[in-house]
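Q: I have 68 residues here and want to know how they pack in 3D. Can you give me a structure?
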Amino acid sequence: MKRRNFTLIELFVLIFICLNVGLWIGNVVHLVNCDWEDDKSWKGEIIHTLGVVSPIYLVTGWTSFEEE
């Protein structure tokens, strides 16, 4: 059996995919932890919900809002 080594590009793609999955999961965790009872501001809930279905999760996975 021939052993296959990873090229540098394949390694970067793998790291990029792992980071994206981690950020998406982080965004979902922030969304679940939002305070849905507060009627004053739904800013965090709206932004994290958009992050679940769009590439905004790349930013919102790192962000936390004070209302949460």
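Q: Anything worth noting?
A: Residues 5 and 11 are 10 Å apart (CA to CA). The chain has a mean pLDDT of 80.
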